[in-house]
Specification:
165 residues, Lipocalin, 2 domains, 1 helix
């Protein structure tokens, strides 16, 4: 009985030590915007990854990838008729982000494309302490903009496959 109790104490101590030692590292790892994110509606999964010295993101998962006719959804809201037939799956949605010079973990100098309107905006982003990604699109200055709050998916997403050209 006493041996079992001692093993329990050692196991609990080891677990607490592990949480104490790994907790700050895990928190730092979560401050990176790279990886999978769900948009605010939960209808699209964006994969953010390095592209050269910058960060970029594209739509790589769609909850409903097909339109009412059963065909892959396309960029129908784009103001350029030539681009309205490009598939949403694989569409570049974020780009040009560089680390914020302030050293606060934010990213600046980027752009965000809104496929629901077909508009592109200047953008900044950062991972908030709660683990959400705040991407602010704006015209002129960030104060005159709107934020999109993205969350990490709770389960792995299966990437959509862009239709063959």
């Amino acid at each position: 009985m006493q041996v079992a109790f001692s093993l329990l104490k050692i196991t609990l101590f080891s677990a607490l030590l592990g949480l104490f030692c790994l907790g700050p590292q895990a928190a730092r790892a979560d401050t990176s915007p790279t990886g999978w994110w769900l948009d605010a509606s939960g209808k699209a999964g964006i994969l953010i990854a390095p592209c050269g010295q910058q960060l970029c993101g594209s739509i790589e998962w769609l909850r409903a990838p097909l339109d009412k006719a059963g065909k892959p959804k396309t960029d129908i809201h784009n103001s350029s008729a030539a681009l309205q037939s490009r598939p949403l799956c694989g569409l570049a949605m974020l780009g040009g982000f560089t680390p914020d010079a302030g050293g606060d973990g934010g990213w600046q100098g980027g752009w965000i494309y809104d496929p629901s309107t077909g508009n592109t905006y200047k953008s900044v982003m950062h991972v908030a302490p709660d683990g959400t990604l705040h991407v602010r699109g704006y015209i002129g200055i960030p104060l005159l903009g709107r934020s999109e709050i993205m969350t990490r998916p709770s389960a792995p997403l299966t990437p959509c496959t862009p239709p063959a050209s």
